[in-house]
Write a structure and sequence with these properties.
The protein has 21 helices and no strands. The protein is mainly α. α11 runs parallel beside α17 and α12 packs antiparallel against α15. The longest helix is centred in the first third of the chain and has 40 residues. The two termini are about 10 Å apart.
Length: about 525
């Protein structure tokens, strides 16, 4: 599969999920607002997701996918299936132990993650109750990551990319119907999280079986392959753990701020996650197995070419997204969330956090571009060293910025700014490490296009600010006028950026169309034995 086709497949389904996620978050804002109940749910929702990124999307996927791809290519389908079954057995045992321990020790876990909540006993008790409901999601979604790794190793990206849709649909149903089965909307959302994880797991196991790659349950054994998997996972787990320490530090710091700070950061981050998910996760998911295959076959030129094209795509899409989110932060939050329990004060505070997060958006996507360059070579140690420095920097900056901005009721803004700045440090250090080893060099085509991308993005940003000012009366009017105004501004921004990027040489529409076509099977080449180059 062509790299661009893989990226658009993953990105397309991710976009559908994120749009549904906005619907979910709009209901959350309307029902819960941004007070103590919302803060309690946000922490309960984040807790299993912290471990999910540690167990599943972080260490496990990064170590498993290259090993599975190598087994499949070198030893055949049955050897790859046996390895996946061994990994499944080990993962399942570890997850059951973690979930049971978390259910028992949940109050102590939350006292560490959100120590500020302990000053408000009702909020703390609700957070513990909700977290016990949501935490089994970790078990289901981690197995989803295993099966997704198998399907991605087979270069079947669509089904895995569609699984987050289940989470949003089930949570929307839980919020819409909570009054029939749950004591509050927060409880309905929490039960929606747990049930959604089960639905995701069942869906992917059925898809994998239909693809002729069903996995049997085995007794856990410490085979040489499992030992190798653990060896590769350990530094990635440390790196992912370091990143999650950053997340925990952010939550812990925000828990000492007035009620609502945790929720402001959550809603802002959810919007920031749209381009990060659609572009960053899509690129990272598609790029890793392709780079692993090309590096294994010795086609270094093709690997460098694909990483440069991934860099181009990342900046082409995320530079304008970052500028647009910063320029339109207030009207976007206003249109999406200002209703029910979410008022003008909450809009202003969340918009400030969104603008701060947008500063680091391109950097976080670039991390997804550069990290596969390490993982595809089974180097899971180097990114950890970089992550340690970023963790320390984030903790120091978040604390300093929060203290400096707290007197202005903007302490949460400092946490978002620290996240953005350390994201840039992370991306630049990853790129520098690859370059020093000769594993990556920005080619002439990418260098030629980066500055026009930035110029087109800034031109679009100026147009957005001007047009939003002209429509200020509409944004201050009824909800239907706000929606129309935002739609007009967004459409105008897309047009300005598309035209500017084309005229300034940031992109070529004919070339983009060519990249999306599937390479003909007859055109096999050394760079892609399956037929055709990955990216032409």
């Amino acid at each position: 599969m062509a790299l661009m086709r893989a990226i658009t497949t993953v990105g397309g389904f991710t976009l559908i999920s994120r749009v549904l996620g906005f619907g979910r978050d709009m209901l959350l804002a309307a029902f819960l607002g941004a007070g103590p109940v919302a803060d309690a749910f946000v922490v309960a929702f984040k807790l299993p997701n912290l471990f999910r990124r540690l167990f599943a999307e972080g260490a496990f996927s990064a170590a498993f996918v290259p090993m599975f791809a190598r087994k499949l290519a070198g030893e055949g389908k049955e050897a790859a299936r046996a390895f996946a079954e061994q990994a499944q057995a080990a993962l399942l045992v570890a997850l059951i132990v973690v979930v049971l321990l978390a259910e028992v020790f949940m109050p102590w876990a939350l006292a560490l993650i959100a120590p500020g909540f302990t000053d408000e006993p009702d909020k703390f008790a609700l957070a513990v109750e909700l977290a016990r409901i949501t935490f089994p999601y970790l078990l289901f979604v981690s197995l989803v990551s295993l099966v997704g790794g198998v399907l991605n190793g087979l270069e079947r990206f669509a089904a895995t990319s569609a699984t987050p849709v289940f989470l949003n649909l089930v949570m929307i149903a839980g919020l819409a119907g909570w009054q029939w089965y749950a004591p509050s909307a927060a409880h309905g959302a929490a039960w929606g999280v747990a049930v959604a994880g089960l639905a995701q797991m069942v869906w992917l196991y059925l898809v994998m079986r239909a693809a002729g790659f069903g996995l049997r349950l085995r007794r856990p054994r410490l085979t040489p392959e499992v030992k190798r998997l653990l060896v590769l996972m350990l530094p990635v787990a440390l790196g992912a753990g370091i990143y999650q320490v950053n997340v925990v530090v952010d939550i812990a710091i925000a828990s000492f701020l007035p009620s609502g700070a945790v929720s402001y950061l959550y809603y802002a981050d959810r919007l920031n996650q749209l381009p990060l998910g659609v572009v960053g996760i899509a690129i990272g998911t598609a790029l890793l197995p392709i780079l692993a295959r090309q590096i294994r076959s010795g086609d270094i030129a093709a690997a460098q070419h694909n990483q440069n094209r991934a860099l181009e795509v990342a900046l082409l899409l995320t530079l304008p997204a970052a500028v647009a989110l910063a320029a339109l932060a207030h009207p976007i939050i206003q249109v999406l969330f200002e209703r029910g329990a979410f008022g003008a004060v909450e809009v202003a505070a969340t918009a400030a956090a969104l603008a701060a997060y947008a500063v680091g958006l391109p950097a976080h996507v670039l991390v997804k571009v550069f990290t596969p360059g390490y993982f595809a070579r089974e180097d899971t140690v180097s990114p950890v060293r970089i992550a340690i420095g970023c963790m320390i920097g984030n903790a120091v900056l978040a604390g300093a910025f929060m203290l400096a901005l707290r007197p202005y009721d903007l302490g949460h803004l400092g946490i978002a700014l620290a996240t953005s700045l350390t994201g840039w440090i992370n991306a630049l250090l990853l790129a520098r490490g690859l370059a020093k080893r000769g594993h990556f060099r920005i080619d002439a085509r990418a260098r030629k296009r980066i500055w026009p991308m930035l110029a087109a993005s800034l031109t679009m940003g100026a147009a957005l600010v001007g047009l939003a000012g002209l429509l200020s009366d509409w944004f201050a009017g009824p909800e239907h006028l706000r929606i129309v105004a935002l739609a007009l501004v967004v459409a105008a921004g897309l047009a300005v950026y598309g035209l500017g990027a084309q005229l300034m040489g940031a992109m070529d529409l004919r070339e983009l169309k060519g990249l999306l076509r599937r390479p003909p099977r007859a055109a096999a080449s050394p760079s892609d034995p399956a037929g055709g180059p990955d990216l032409t």
